[in-house]
Each structure stands twice: as structure tokens, then as C-alpha cells.
Amino acid sequence: MLGVGAAPEIAFCVSDQAGAQPKYLIHDNDSIFRSKAVQEFLRSAGIRAIRTVLRRPQQNGVCERSVGLCRRELLDHLIPINERHLQRLLTEYVDRYYNPARTHQGIDRQTPVPQESPPAPAAFTTPLQAEPILGGLYHTYSRAA
Description:
Blueprint lengths: L7 H6 L10 E4 L3 H4 L1 H10 L2 E4 L9 H15 L7 H16 L29 E6 L4 E6 L2
Parallel strand pairs: 1-2
Antiparallel strand pairs: 3-4
């Protein structure tokens, strides 16, 4: 964590995010992103800051929806202990639930990551095995062996 300011929001914005190095940061005109500390960090890291147009909230739609979705489906149910715990929760949510198991209306009720073998239609009596995700907050189901 870099010591760049007193506000934890600024410190989080300029912390090392699991070693990922983005090329761009698209942001709105919130004061946290316009702060000198964040702008200096972005320049020193070689990240190009791109501001959305003033008073055009529809430009934030995808980001706002993603953040809201994570909040409603994950963070409203679990309280991360620290930043490392939050990273682990988000990774498990995205890698084990959101992309491979959760269906999406925008892609015809399919999952973003297609299953290796789509489930064949089965009778109601087929035994299922539940695999808990995020400590049982969500489950994926497969045929029992």
C-alpha cells in the first residue's frame, strides 16, 4: 500500500491490485480520481487516465452495473476482513460463479464461459450434487456420480 494520502479511498485506489497492470483507467469526475495523489500515481505507473464527459452518467453504465451487481450478490452477504480477503472473495465470485455458473439474459440465458459438456436433459429423479461457492452463499450443481 502506498502512503499517498489520509483518505483510505485514495490509498486503495493507488495500491497494487494483485499485480495487474492496466493500460487505461476510465473514470468519472469524482474528486478521488481528480486528486493530485491519484493522478501522480497513474502517471508514474504509466496508466493513461481517461475521464468521462461531464454530466453524462450513461458513460458509467457498465461500470456502475458491475459494481452494483458485486455489491448486491456478494458484498451485501459477506463482509471482507481486509483487502486480501476482498480480493479472494471477488476472484472466487467471478471465476467460480459469475462466469462459469450464473446465466446471463444478454447472452440468451447462457454462461459467459461455456461449460465443457452442456448438461443433457434429465428426468426429475436424477440425483444432483451441490458444490458450495463462497462458503455456501451460492451453489453449482452437477450430476452425482
